[in-house]
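Budget justification note: compute hours in this period were largely spent on complex prediction jobs such as the one shown. Inputs:
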Amino acid sequence: TQLLEQSPQFLSIQEGENLTVYCNSSSVFSSLQWYRQEPGEGPVLLVTVVTGGEVKKLKRLTFQFGDARKDSSLHITAAQPGDTGLYLCAGHNYGGSQGNLIFGKGTKLSVKP
Amino acid sequence: EAEVAQSPRYKITEKSQAVAFWCDPISGHATLYWYRQILGQGPELLVQFQDESVVDDSQLPKDRFSAERLKGVDSTLKIQPAELGDSAMYLCASSLELSFHNEQFFGPGTRLTVL
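Corresponding output:
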């Protein structure tokens, strides 16, 4: 069974601080996606990483896929209250399990003004 | 901007009653997913459709849950009878096709509370 472990589970920081969220697995994934979910809403896709070692930037968010495609990280620079939410990573293994996504349990981020 | 539509947004029911959720995927998306998300957890797949066919329903509790996508467009998920443990967020997602990346786009969800 493929599992994705996210850490930390909870993170509470002040506006302007930097943070890193981790997503780890013992399995290799074809691609990995990061979503942000606000309370009472569905997850919103932020980015997809597909190549080992790949780095993608989305404004103040930097996403990295591990060289072996087993892990990923999300780094937020100068966090703002609008970054508050549940960050989910989801792995996809093309050709396996009919192509569904395996989700981690998420990191709940709170950024205080 | 194209979005996945879901209704209702909130549903409160008593145990042993029947409930139904509706989902309309992004136009042209052949693959549709229903997920259940318990508070504090990541979404877990219940059922996956490719057009009107079920591709994966291995995690669907078939004694009480059913799902259909008759014309390969919108879909309905039903629970009968509802149990206390079914209280959760039910999410629908769609993707263009079963691709290498499988980027899925989610609707706003239906929050179910079973009393």
